[in-house]
């Protein structure tokens, strides 16, 4: 009897597996929780602890690894997700260089990826490789337009630029350069520095020699404070703009009084309490802030954690649609179905705006996804 019972149990287990009752959905997450981008990656990592562990009746496992802000490690993490963990989707990485390096791996593995980094080059153009790649942060061009429009309204004519000496800085210069002329802005200086640099005195002296009325710093996280602190030390009195890459409280802490008066574009989640009641992201952003601060303390939320939250919201919208195809999690068919479902997400309100994905748009955000903010008295002030 015992062998017969074992056979019956085995048959029952295999039937359950075939029906999908025991199939888990595995999500591989690589974040920059240490290294130069840690102030971005830590709130992202924290946010994954708030995401649902069951979607549409299926258990969801989040396998979170730290890539230490390093491109090589981000690629290694991605390969590990695909080969060892057989994930259905990859989320990450925190920064643009890492995310760009991951694309070949996920495309080869035909596994959808949702990046939490900003550059439009991560998802554009949608080709044979990038058809597998989506992202949640606003495109640089959207934020560059917000900055250039604000500069023009402030009467600025000449601008100095200093950015990271990597894909983030180059991408930002390219996008800002496109829009500057249209808004009557003349870029009079263009400098670069490394995320790990401890001095930018030479670059700042060149910027100041060009006498720009405003300076745009294209950096992210706490390393973006270095040029601004140096500019203040050297007596620069013009307007200073930062990108949405600094929208976290660590930047305020490191920058201190030197970042007072800074203008930057941001996702609405940063100043959600100050937004009008009819803003389309008000409810979804408020929900995220409430959950995050309940877990990690008042005033701890950042826009970067919001990008992770929005990745989770995309999955919550896409997974039920993918499951309707009857494809099993852990299979190529399910990964393809999930990719298709992500591409079909429409009018999904999230912490940073409203997603409308399409075969030609793997970001899906519009102008509802950005606001202008000013740093006043060490806090973020909505500056409509």
Question: What's the arrangement of secondary structure elements?
Answer:
Elements: H1 2-19, E1 25-31, H2 38-47, E2 54-55, E3 58-66, H3 71-83, E4 89-92, H4 96-108, E5 113-115, E6 133-135, H5 140-153, E7 158-164, H6 167-180, E8 186-193, H7 201-209, E9 214-218, H8 225-233, E10 239-242, H9 249-255, E11 263-266, H10 282-296, H11 303-323, H12 332-343, E12 348-350, E13 353-355, E14 371-376, E15 379-382
Parallel strand pairs: 1-3, 1-4, 4-5, 5-6, 7-8, 7-9, 9-10
Antiparallel strand pairs: 2-3, 11-14, 12-13, 14-15
Helix pairs in contact: 2-11, 3-4, 5-6, 11-12
Give a short summary of the structure.
The protein has 384 residues and is an alpha/beta fold. The protein is built from twelve helices and 15 strands.
What does this 3D model show about the protein?
α3 packs parallel to α4 and α5 (140-153) crosses α6 (167-180). The longest helix has 21 residues, at 303-323. Mean pLDDT is 93; it is low at 11-20. This protein has 384 residues and is an alpha/beta fold. It is built from twelve helices and 15 strands. The protein has a six-stranded mixed sheet with strand order 2-3-1-4-5-6, with helices on both faces. It has a four-stranded parallel sheet with strand order 8-7-9-10. Helix content is 40%, strand content 19%.
């Amino acid at each position: 009897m015992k062998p017969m019972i074992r056979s019956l149990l085995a048959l029952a287990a295999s039937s359950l597996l075939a029906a999908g009752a025991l199939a888990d959905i595995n999500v591989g997450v690589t974040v920059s929780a240490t290294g130069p981008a840690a102030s971005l990656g830590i709130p992202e990592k924290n946010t994954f602890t708030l995401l649902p562990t069951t979607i549409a009746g299926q258990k969801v496992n989040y396998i979170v690894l730290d890539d230490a802000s390093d491109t090589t490690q981000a690629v290694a993490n991605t390969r590990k997700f695909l080969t060892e963990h057989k994930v259905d989707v990859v989320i990450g990485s925190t920064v643009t260089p890492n995310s760009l390096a991951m694309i070949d791996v996920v495309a080869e593995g035909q596994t959808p990826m949702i990046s939490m980094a900003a550059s439009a080059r991560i998802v554009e153009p949608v080709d044979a490789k990038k058809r597998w790649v989506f992202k949640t942060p606003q495109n640089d061009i959207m934020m560059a337009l917000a900055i250039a429009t604000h500069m023009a309204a402030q009467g600025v004519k000449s601008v100095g630029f200093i950015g990271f000496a990597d894909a983030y800085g180059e991408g930002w210069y390219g996008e800002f350069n496109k829009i500057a002329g249209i808004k009557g802005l003349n870029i009079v200086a263009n400098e670069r520095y490394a995320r790990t640099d401890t001095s930018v005195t030479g670059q700042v002296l060149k910027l100041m020699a060009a006498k720009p009325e405003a300076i745009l710093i294209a950096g992210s996280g706490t390393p973006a404070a270095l040029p601004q602190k140096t500019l203040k030390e050297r007596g620069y009195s013009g307007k200073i703009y930062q990108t949405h890459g600094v929208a976290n409280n660590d930047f305020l802490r490191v920058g201190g009084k030197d970042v007072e008066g800074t203008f930057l574009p941001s996702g609405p989640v940063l100043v959600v309490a100050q937004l009008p009641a009819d803003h389309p992201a008000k409810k979804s952003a408020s929900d995220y802030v409430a959950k995050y601060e309940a877990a990690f303390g008042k005033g701890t939320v950042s826009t970067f954690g919001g990008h992770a939250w929005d990745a989770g919201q995309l999955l919550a919208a896409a997974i039920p649609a993918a499951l309707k195809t009857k494809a099993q999690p852990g299979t190529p068919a399910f990964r393809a179905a999930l990719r298709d479902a992500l591409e079909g997400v429409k009018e999904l309100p999230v912490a940073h705006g409203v997603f409308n994905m399409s075969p030609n748009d793997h970001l899906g955000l519009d102008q509802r996804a950005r606001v202008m903010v000013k740093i006043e008295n060490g806090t973020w002030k909505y500056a409509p």
